[in-house]
Amino acid sequence: MTSRVIHFEIQADDVERAKKFYEKTFGWKIEKNMSKEEGGMMDYWMIKTGEDGTPGINGGMYQRPKDEKIQYFDCTIMVDDIDKAIEAVKMSGGKIRTERTGQEKNELPGVGWFAGGIDTEGNMFGLMQPTDWQPK
Q1: Which long-range contacts link 94-100 to residues 24+ away (Cβ below 8 Å)?
Q2: What is the pLDDT along the chain (136 residues), one digit of tens a residue?
Q3: Domains of the chain and CATH, by start
């Protein structure tokens, strides 16, 4: 049995606001695929983060429960350009919690460049521009 992450979920206080943030910031496609009113167990949106056959995984989004605190999993998003991604986070209403890493903005040796963000719902995420990544 493998232990590979195959899906992620984002909780949102305001799903439409979070949807707009991720679509604007990263170009993700987010579509509602289950509705409580139509017999589903909850309202649920599927998130497509990129084209099939490219690195990464897809996920989902749902309304954060108001009656119980649920901890979340902090995921890292691969980006082509860390500086442009940081600016996109800020322009879309998010915040940067960890500025770009690396001494004098140099890469982390053999890893790449990293920054930490917070979305419009208060969820943390990472941004990573890998060392040897060449966008297609």
Answers
A1: 94/21, 94/25, 94/118, 94/119, 94/120, 97/124
A2: 556 777 898 999 999 999 999 999 999 999 999 888 888 788 999 999 999 998 889 999 999 888 876 666 678 899 989 999 999 999 999 999 988 876 556 677 778 888 999 999 999 998 988 887 555 5
A3: 8-65+74-130 (3.10.180.10)
